[in-house]
Amino acid sequence: MNNPEDARITSGKNMSYWTDTATPAVQNPLKENLETDVVIVGGGLAGLSVAYCLTQSGKKVVLIEDGFIGSGETGRTTAHLVTALDDRYYHLEKLFGDEKTKLIAESHMMAIDFVEQTVKKENIDCGFERVNGYLFRHPSDKIDSLPQELKAALKAGVEIKEVDEAPGMLRVEKALCFLNQAQFHPLKYLNGLCKAIEQKGGKIFTGTHALKINHESITTAEKFTVKAKHIVVATNSPVNNLFTMFEKQYAYRTYVIGALVKKDSLPKALWWDTGDFEDNSKIPPYHYVRIHPYNAQYDLLISGGEDHLTAETGKTKVPEENRYKLLEDWTRNYFPIGEIVYHWSGQVLEPMDGIAFIGRNPLDHDNVYIITGDSGNGMTHCSFAGLLISDLINGKENKWEKLYSPSRFTLKESGAVMQLLTEDLMNVLKKWFYTGSVELSSIKNSEAGIVKLDGKKCGAYRDESGKLYLVSAECTHLKCMVLWNNDEKSWDCPCHGSRFTYEGKVINGPANFDLPAYNENAVLTEPD
Q: Taking the model in full, what pTM does it have?
């Protein structure tokens, strides 16, 4: 990010294609105390889907967003609307059984239908299209993975068939064809939702940070209060939940390139491989591809992948800024792409059992709700969340309530939770016993590192002009030590995925407070 305002537009240095081609609404900070039926924190797809459904049902709604609409992970997605899930159906079947797996499939079908119906009803110009999607086997995956998935997906009621060749690819690959998937421009869709929400009396405030959240109200950083009967926290990673959710999900970074291809040279479709099991056998990072119109001469092929745990680059140790080259090499192997004109990264929360957490916040009052754990299927999980949360608030029975409950604990996945606890402890110990700090004088322009100043561990960054930025190296969530992300020029927490700009502004939860900033004498600097 080149200036503080950029942190409100998007959660990193790199601009996505969506952010670059959709004009955000003029900032509208909250400047008064309000009272309403429902207050929603978070202006991404989850928060706006909930707001839309509730205003349609007649509820009074106030939505608070600390940046611009879509400035979080919605603006950094690749916007696949799918029933082809990150976790294979044969895996979900083993965890949940046949009947619950059918419910999972139904929820994603319903989400796609909901978006399509909303686009038509509200006349939203966002490039929504129904397309087919093709799943093909990664060389590291077992030979029988596709037949297993076909059998399980059919049993779950998914529209799917086997094909001898995935169209548009340079290689002949047998694939599973998931019918009636969809794609759209996510930020243009959000703009349409905003208009529909406000037409029904909903109020949307941007540039407004919810600093305190409880079951009665939210209080902003500017000390204004919104009292409400129901509180919904839709901030990707919940900023109102200190402990209960963060040992149930992992934070991953994922990478995207946008490459030019000759206009109409490839079919409009979605493509995915099954993931690299040599890199991570439990959660194999996969590649995901789609086409989007670009200009009169070219389409944009949007390709994503090369995931790794946030602030931990995995077995390969390839730094964040070099992931795009890996992604480009893979993409050129499979698709006839030209110049790379965009690149960006995003954050994915992978839940312990593969499906999102949508519902009442654990160990909280019954009128507080959260939406998290998108599992790489954020567009459908967040759209479906609008329907589910609206039903809960309106007192309507919903057959998906228990399935998606944030209070659930899947015994079969308890080993993953223990692994997270162990990793968190190791990251805390790294902070306490960290000896790898560098001298402040050794940090050159456009470089960063952890330094020790007057006994304090600080994150130090010099920008291109040589200006120095010093912040505390302790994450404001649970005090793990942050690490430098040279790609997005941010401080990232390896424990739970909180992220901060080089100036210390929080841009990803679960942290909800900025990193303290220091001068070169390790004296706390007062905010402007």
A: 0.93
